[in-house]
Amino acid sequence: MSYLDRLDATPEAERFPLLWGWVNSEDPRPFFAELRARRPVLATPVGTLVARFDDVIEVLRLPTVFTVQPYVHALNVYMLAQDETPDHALDKSVMTAMLDRRDLPRVRAFVAAETDKVLDGAGERIEAVSGITRHIPVRLVQEYFGFAGSDAARLQEWSYWAQMDGFHNYPWDLGADHDRIHAEAQRSLTEMKDYLAGLLRERAAALRAGKSLPDDIVARLLQSRIAGPVGFPPEKLLLNVGGLLIGAVETTSQAAAQVIEWLLRRPPRLAAAVAAAQLADPKLFDGHVWEALRFAPMSNYLFRKSAAAHVFGRGQAWETEIPAGTHVLPLIGSASFDEARFANPDAFDPMRPIHSAFHFGWGHHACLGGHIAEVLIPEMVRRVLLRPGIRLETPIDRRGGPFPESLGIAWASGGAV
Each residue of 53-68: pLDDT tens digit? Predict the structure, then answer.
């Protein structure tokens, strides 16, 4: 029996849990392929799933129709919870200027050095989540973003609870302890705000005293000639600096851990990636990372809420109208394998363009720091794969949650290849 036949034969009250299990299974591609072929827009009482690439793009390119209103409960007035507002445009513009793309070689070199230092000190094995995939992004937050003198464990905790509440605390997240997640996120947010307020006061006082500051994002904002004239008061600065932390740690860790595990489980793919890792130009190796992440994505869906009625597939046999107020879940994990868009979508191709998938979202709400992640994630993975005889010891353990909590890896004695 096909997926949809089984779904239609299931009592209505039991359909969404069944459906959601398929969406979040280890390999949902067969289910997604059937959706694209037979029911590209699937309405449920919880939300409407959209499976084809063109329709997913349509959702993501119409922010005033498909809004980010669901994020407001967790992100409040942060720009990610706004659609085409003046504040969204201002905040994104200022922060884009601060996150200068000319910094990418510096960021990549820092990640390489920090990861090698951890691996050199670990002997021949390490628990890679706490040791690398969470640790290195936190170090980048401290040194490049400017969270000077911060406690690494607290930074990681603040990012974790913000991500849990912002992206894993909705009606479709079955089994989640929704109230506890929100309470932990609010507690963490208060702690983070208190820390950042003190940090900004200290750094501003140092500037007034004529002291020089290191070149990090906090310092750039405090010294910026851009932010002042356009109206970027301290409360905006605090809010957007906090957003850097929230977006930098947990999702980065998840992506890197899943790529490492995926490659280590597949010897032919691993051998090709290791060979590419030894090239002076990392471009080909990076392609291995992004293609592995297409097969092991951080999420198979995004979510929006419709502000107006909308018709998908107008003139097609599957034409579907959704009313205003509908939760819409664009299935990015399906769109990334849409045979109508991509040649040989089920083949592993490290030369496939990075935009073939949705690693950093798309359109109005694409990841602000996606270009930082484009060097941070692959360089962490690269340093791991350069260890001789690298192998998987214990697979990812999520401990009942959405994020990797542990991953055991080991290698032969000696330095990097």
Answer: 999 999 999 999 999 9
Kindly report each contact of residues 386-393 with a partner whose C-beta sits within 8 Å and lies 24 or more positions away, as own/partner: 386/274, 386/277, 386/278, 386/416, 386/417, 387/119, 387/411, 387/412, 387/416, 387/417, 388/412, 388/414, 388/416, 388/417, 390/264, 390/270, 390/274, 391/264, 392/261, 392/264, 392/265, 393/125
Q: HSE (CB half, 13 Å, CA atoms) of 283?
A: 4
pLDDT of 229? 78
Are 321 and 310 in contact, with CB atoms under 8 Å apart?
yes
Backbone angles phi, psi at 397, to 5 degrees: -120, 120
Instruction: State the alpha helices, DSSP H only, in 124-265.
Output: 128, 135-140, 152-167, 178-208, 217-223, 227-230, 234-248, 250-264
For residues 404 and 254, what is the distance between their CA atoms, to the nearest angstrom? Answer: 6
Q: How far apart are CA 382 and CA 378, in angstroms?
A: 6
Q: How confident is the model at residue 79 (pLDDT cuts 50, 70, 90)?
A: confident
